[in-house]
Design brief:
The chain has helices at about 40-45, 65-70, 95-110, 120-155, 160-165, 170, 180-210, 215-220, 225-235; strands at about 5-10, 15-20, 30-35, 55-60, 75-80. It has about 240 residues and is α/β, with parallel strands linked by helices.
């Protein structure tokens, strides 16, 4: 007789998932690697749906389709925040099946750190905020590259704001060797492109945030920029 505390755990990869169903004593009831096909995954765990205490899905880059599909099918879904599990880092070499069982074990004990399953209608803003952060990090790497080049050439570093103002024509006027100047102009071209896209995303984020009452409250706090607040608010949904 199966226990009444079955907990499926799902580890998602880019094209496949490992599904493990455990009973209340952590015994494996069923375990299988499946392609990322919602119908197949639901078909595997459907026989125990009435007995399931919940379904655990690992928070990866591609969980939306699975969590939404499982919830629509009537399952209770939890999202595992694996970055908050210190021991989990050491399990990466133990195999997907063992990892899935361990996460399910933590859920059964009630000590699994979980992430927020943001409503689908709010995810677009969060993804936009994440894209802005990605572009800002990329731009920073190119700015630092230009700063480092100037230090190597002249022993003095120009500021990041000065780098942002550089144009190809301005680089031509700087006493760089030809090849070094070409390298700097490549960085400057990328910085200009990224800055234009970052400005575009920031304008959209600010527009989206105006419709949120909590954003208006947060902007009343002194010393916090509107774009920073929009990014934080967007990430938190």
């Amino acid at each position: 007789m199966l226990g009444l505390n079955l907990i499926p755990s799902n580890r998602i990869h880019s094209n496949n998932s490992v599904v493990s169903v455990l009973d209340e004593e952590d015994h494996v009831v069923v375990e299988k690697r499946l392609s990322n096909d919602l119908a197949k995954i639901i078909g595997l765990i459907k026989p125990w749906q009435e007995e399931l205490a919940g379904i655990l899905v690992e928070s990866t880059f591609n969980w939306y389709w699975l969590v939404d599909g499982l919830k629509e099918a009537g399952f209770t879904v939890h999202l595992a925040n694996t970055t908050a599990i210190k021991k989990y880092e050491g399990l990466k070499h133990s195999g997907d099946e063992a990892d899935a069982r361990y996460l399910a074990h933590l859920l059964r004990l009630g000590i699994l750190p979980t992430g927020t399953i943001l409503a689908p209608e709010h995810r677009a803003v969060r993804d936009l905020a994440r894209k802005r952060m990605q572009l800002v990090r990329s731009r920073t790497s190119h700015i630092l590259a230009v700063e480092n080049i100037t230090v190597r050439q002249y022993g003095a570093r120009i500021t990041s704001n000065q780098v942002k103002q550089l144009t190809s024509e301005m680089v031509d006027e700087m006493p760089f060797p030809n090849d070094v100047g070409l390298a700097v102009k490549a960085n400057v071209a990328v910085i200009e492109t990224l800055s234009a896209q970052i400005d575009l995303l920031e304008k959209r984020l600010l527009l989206d945030m105006k419709e949120r009452p909590n954003y208006a409250l947060l902007t009343s706090a002194p010393g916090i920029g509107k774009v920073r607040l929009a990014t934080v608010n967007g990430l938190e949904g």
